[in-house]
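Checked the freezer inventory, then went back to the computational side. Two predictions to log before the end of the day. The first one is the construct we discussed on Monday; recording sequence and tokens without edits.
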Amino acid sequence: MTMWGRMASCGRVALGLPPSMQMPPRPIDNRPQVANLPHIGQRARLNQCWCSVAGKVCGRFSVGLGARSSTRRRTAPQPAERSTRRGQAVVEFAILYGAVVLPLTFMLIFVSEMLWIWHSVCDYTRDGARYAATHCWMADASNVTSYMQANAPAMIDQNQFQDGDAGIAVVYFANVSGSLQPFSCQSAECGAGCIPDAVSVSITNYQFRRFSGFFKLPPVTIPPFTASLPMESAGCDESGNCLP
């Protein structure tokens, strides 16, 4: 073993490194050879001497390195710290999910439902206007209203249109000097003598309230979606018979 090897070995001992990083000891069995080879025993004593001297020298330099190694050991995450960080991540995810992800998910669902109603009501009024244009006039438009309530499209809040909670307005017009005026007739209803020139159908008093229950927001008022069409003989044939 050279001088530098001895110092390195003893320095590792002084630094407190694990045995795996130290130079493995080499046992010397000099019992049968001491008589013939006395220098073997002297070499072993010299090795001990070197370790005692080099250990003191290396120990002086081990203070700074030991402080650094202890600092590294302190900064390494311990099992308790890892469990704390894991719990903190779970809490942060729960707050983010409950305050952002979940409301946005329901907002997308409710907006999709509102757009579904929006397009359905638009087609609903057009269908009612076509029915009114091809059927006879009645002062209260009960024939058109009954048809629309019985043929409400499949959509959210369909029951409001069937039960009358959402109003249906039917207005007939007459062409007077090039302008449309509200139509009126003194003759019998649903007859060939009372045929208006145009009709309009709209929806009233309907509000989308699904936002107000979950997000505590005011209801959304749906536009009337007024559909107007010219009368098409009001459902009357040449003999004067009209379809109600």
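The second is the one RB wanted added to the comparison set:
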Amino acid sequence: MIRATTAVIAGIVAWAVVATGMDLILRATLSGYALAEPQLHFTLGMMLARLAVPGAVPSLAAGLITAWISRGNGRIVTLLAVILFFVFLPSHYALWSKFPWWYHLTFLGSIFLLTACGAVLARKAFSTPAATIEPPASASTRDTPSSIGQA
């Protein structure tokens, strides 16, 4: 229970930290973004960048961190996605008229997919190989460490 709670909290914190960092990068690199952000007057390119950078990357990171801490527990990663969905649902409802419908549906729907993808990345990144590689049985004894120095 402690591991699961820690994993979810760490996932939420990871989402917030990564999203903040990605938003700062977007402000610094995307022309006009910093000026458009306070009024939420984004161009199509800016909305797509928001979905890709401070939208997608944090969900991947949150899924990865949560899966790593929970040792790949899919139910805990799903719980994180549900919590994130319900955290963002009220703000997207309040901002419904400021963005096109597809923006909200893409962001909210991607939470589930991308946290699951982050969990898959964690499984691949932190898994140990199932077996060690053994030399072929026909290998010559002259190449083994015990035969070095023998003539």
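For RB: Residues 2-124 form one domain. The chain has a mean pLDDT of 87. Let me know if you want it refolded.
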